[in-house]
Design goal:
heterodimer, A: Alpha-Beta Plaits, 2 domains, 4 helices, B: 620 residues, alpha/beta, 20 helices, 19 strands, 14% strand
């Protein structure tokens, strides 16, 4: 219904970097997908549809944060069928969303989403943690119950922790976040808080950046 | 970092997305800049409430007014309720997060009788006095509306007033009255309710005294003031083309029951099935034009990005311009990959042409509602549908590769015999054999015919409003008769509704204001979510009635006299009692009544007016 730009010879890959903060942290990945699906449709962005019996706007996400966590580093790949500038896409998409789903950047990607291997989290705790206690806990194996496809099992997660820095009520943690080797920051916090004897301490997780296997900022 | 209480609570409940608000399309205003704050409550879960078209319309209609701010609220799920009670936190409205008790109005939409305990519970969670009589000047005005308010009596102790009929204009008017009285200093709760009772379509139950006869039936409704009406005539929107219709939707983050565009095509129904309350109370029929509908559909698509449009009405195939409308919609929906769905199709309209147009093609099944198993009984209930019609429609579906058919029926209908019940099984058998006889039906795939049977509940404002609901024992016996008849049939599945829920619904449907006492007692016992199987507790309800000295059979299972004053006589919904009596007699004589389009049956609703209706103009 909306006038479209010129048809592209090949659908063009477009990456959207966005933030989900505030109330949006209570929204699951599936619900986020539905939200973005309708947002693309109402935005008039010429998104490419999956082919087949039941075509849907095709969206591919980098590993997303779990319910309860915020993120200022979410990545979504789409393709467009007709010419539209990246800035126009960003503008239209933001217009079709609430401010708590903020479009940070729209660009043509030079990397693959699968290259994400680590994530940096800022975790805000209810009260400041004792840095020396955290330091001591990180020297030990950290065994937590992990949900898996084959049920719950105990696992030592210490090998999946890249680096941790405690600054008053903020923990900066870089954890493995590859498709094959992923540490859920919730499990990290469970393990850490149990180790330092503060299992009831409330916290808020915010993903701030993603990195590749060589530790280079992912974009 | 500080974590506030609400945040802590949201972390501990399932589906916190139900309570956070903040959806795309929600309307935010400056609370200090508006003159009237209205909280619109849906007394069931967020997922159900967000799917309700009436709420969508009225939310938009109120917010269109600059100085009125309407927000939303839903029944919290039990885990959230526990948290609210533990922490003493009052229930809040979605948009602002402010407690409901700070609002000027708290409005409830009453969609089904089984939500009544949720209304009381929500008042309690909002920390608002439950009874109208106990409220002070500081409390919000509690207002009710929706289909159940065609007999609002069972809940009237909890409400300050009711809006009867369609609310688009009425709710704005009541807010205006409030704003004016606050502005000129004449507002007190008492003076406001008195003035409200003079506005067309508003019923203030506390301003009517009810007296009873010795046999327990109602003697009279007596207005407390001389200047308020003796009966409250429902409001209608006369011209639906020009009447407000929302062109935006609040887009839920979490999945809801009807997550799609709902395009309301017309109001009312030309059919007059004798068991159907909606078919009577929404009269007269008023249609929108295809041009207006197509424009609204386009705007809604652009504003929502939904990929499905559901054409909404009581019986979509009776829309006089259905062909034009679907053609105009298909001109753009196909390309936009938007599918059309047409619920409420009648079998006689189910044609190959229509089948081509609807998205239902993707699904493997199709649903029809013959309602009764024999022609005799279908004539009694005025369901103008023959076995031939049904089989023809099923064959169209089979031609298009469908193999499953769902058939809706009722048991416990007036004059019903066991032969009528067995007729349901026979009809299902005919559908199965039609499938095997159809050369185009998919080979090597067996048909599935699902027979779904609910219990008939006599409803106010229908020709069957004087009929007794059959006892649970009899309803269950009939369920067994049908079970025996279908149990040996291949490819037929039988589903039935629990008679206990239907019985309670039967009590409240025709109840009077003495039932408010039972609702209060039920609330004190913790009863809520009665429409949810996991919470419905029949035995607890019976104990409540016993404790209150109320005989549920008096309301549900009694044959009402045509001369007695009915609880809902205080309302005038357009159709006359004479018409309903006439229809009742025709039912017993097994005579059908033609649709409004074929011939006017003189129901009386034309006195309300209405554009693009098929009614003769009233002479008054």
């Amino acid at each position: 219904m909306l006038p479209k730009g010129n048809l592209l010879r090949e659908p063009r890959a477009i990456r959207v970097k966005f933030a989900k903060t505030g109330k949006l942290r209570y929204i699951s990945h599936l619900d986020l997908c539905r939200t973005l699906n309708s947002a693309f449709l109402r935005s008039g962005i010429p998104i490419w549809y999956s082919q087949g019996f039941n075509p849907r706007p095709k969206m591919v996400f980098a590993l997303t944060v779990s319910v309860g966590a915020e993120s200022v580093a979410e990545f979504l790949d789409i393709r467009i069928t007709h010419e539209m500038s990246e800035s126009e896409i960003a503008k239209r998409l933001q217009y079709a969303l609430t401010p708590e789903l903020e479009i940070l950047e729209v660009y043509r990607p030079a990397s693959k989403l699968q290259e994400v291997a680590q994530s940096e989290y800022h975790i805000f705790t209810e009260r400041p943690l004792d840095p020396s206690a955290v330091e001591a806990a990180l020297q030990q194996p950290m065994v937590v119950m992990v949900h898996g496809k084959k049920g719950d099992k105990e696992k030592d997660i210490s090998g999946q922790i890249v680096s941790v820095l405690v600054d008053s009520d903020r923990i900066c943690a870089r954890l493995l976040a590859g498709q094959g080797d992923f540490l859920n920051p919730e499990n990290f916090m469970k393990g850490l808080l149990t180790s330092i004897g503060e299992p009831e301490c409330l916290y808020l997780i915010r993903r701030v950046a993603c990195y590749d296997a060589d530790g280079r900022l992912f974009r | 970092m500080n974590f506030d209480l609400k945040d802590k609570i949201l972390r501990s409940v399932v589906k916190p997305g139900r309570y956070i608000g903040g959806e795309y399309g929600e309307i935010l205003k400056d609370k200090n800049a508006v003159k009237c704050r209205f909280a619109f409550a849906f007394p069931d879960t967020y997922e159900i409430g967000m799917s309700n078209l009436g709420v969508r319309i009225l939310y938009g209609a109120l917010n269109r007014e600059e100085d009125i701010w309407c927000e939303r609220c839903y029944s919290p799920w039990v885990d959230m309720e526990e948290q609210l009670r533990t922490h003493g936190l009052p229930m809040w409205a979605h948009e602002s997060g402010d407690p409901l008790k700070e609002f000027d109005f708290l409005g409830f939409t009453l969609q089904y009788e089984m939500c009544y305990t949720n209304v009381v519970n929500l008042l309690d969670l909002a920390q608002i006095p439950l009874l109208s009589a106990d409220r002070s000047e500081e409390d919000p005005i509690i207002i009710g509306g929706g289909p159940c308010t065609y007999n609002p009596e069972p809940v009237c102790d909890f409400f300050d007033l009711f809006s009867i009929g369609e609310g688009e204009d009425a709710l704005v008017e009541i807010c205006r009255l409030y704003i004016n009285m606050k502005g000129n200093g004449t507002y007190t709760r008492k003076s406001f309710l008195h003035e409200a009772a003079k506005l067309p379509g508003f019923y203030v139950p506390s301003l009517y005294t009810v007296t009873y006869k010795e046999d327990g039936t109602i003697e009279a409704y007596i207005p407390v003031y001389d200047d308020i009406p003796k009966r409250i005539t429902k409001r209608i929107m006369k011209d639906l083309d020009t009447s407000y219709y929302p062109e935006k939707v609040v887009m839920p983050y979490i999945e809801t029951v009807h997550d799609r565009i709902m395009l309301e095509v017309y109001r009312g129904c030309i059919r007059g099935c004798r068991f159907c309350q909606a078919g009577m109370t929404y009269r007269p029929v008023r249609e929108k034009t295809p041009e207006v509908l197509n424009e609204q559909a386009k705007k809604l698509y652009e504003a929502t990005g939904y990929d499905e449009i559901s054409l909404s009405s009581l019986s979509i195939s009776d829309y006089s311009c259905l062909d034009t409308l679907t053609n105009e919609l298909l001109e753009w929906t196909d390309e936009a990959k938007v599918s059309l769905s047409l619920p409420s199709l009648r079998v006689n309209s189910f044609t190959p042409e229509l089948m081509e147009k609807i998205s239902g093609v993707r699904a493997s099944g199709i649903t029809f509602a013959p309602e009764a198993g024999t022609q005799r009984l279908r004539d009694v209930i005025n369901k103008n549908l023959t076995e031939e019609d049904l089989l023809r429609a099923c064959n169209v579906a089979f031609d298009y590769g469908k193999s499953s058919v769902k058939l809706y029926f009722m048991n416990g209908l007036p004059t019903e015999t066991d032969d009528d019940i067995r007729g349901i099984a026979e009809l299902a058998r005919s559908v199965v054999s039609a499938y095997y006889k159809n050369p185009k039906a998919i080979k090597n795939r067996a048909p599935t015919v699902t027979v779904s049977v609910s219990c008939f509940i006599p409803k106010p404002w229908t020709p069957f409003q004087w009929e007794p609901q059959q006892t649970m024992e009899e309803l269950r016996r009939k369920q067994t008769v049908l079970f025996e008849a279908v149990s040996k049939m291949k490819h037929v599945t039988y589903k039935w509704h629990d008679a206990k829920t239907s019985h309670l619904e039967g009590v409240f449907a025709r109840g009077d204001r003495r039932l408010s006492k039972a609702l209060l007692a039920a609330h004190r016992r913790g009863l809520k979510f009665d429409s949810w199987d996991e919470f419905f507790d029949y035995d607890a309800w019976m104990a409540v009635f016993e404790e209150c000295g109320i005989d549920p059979a008096f309301y549900a299972n009694r044959t009402y006299s045509e001369d007695e004053v009915l609880a809902w006589d205080i309302i005038d919904c357009g159709v006359t009692k004479e018409f309903l009596k006439r229809e009742k007699r025709k039912a017993y004589a097994e005579i059908t009544t033609p649709s409004c389009r074929e011939q006017c049956s003189g129901c009386g609703a034309n006195k309300l007016g209405g554009e693009r209706s098929c009614c003769p103009k009233a002479t008054s």
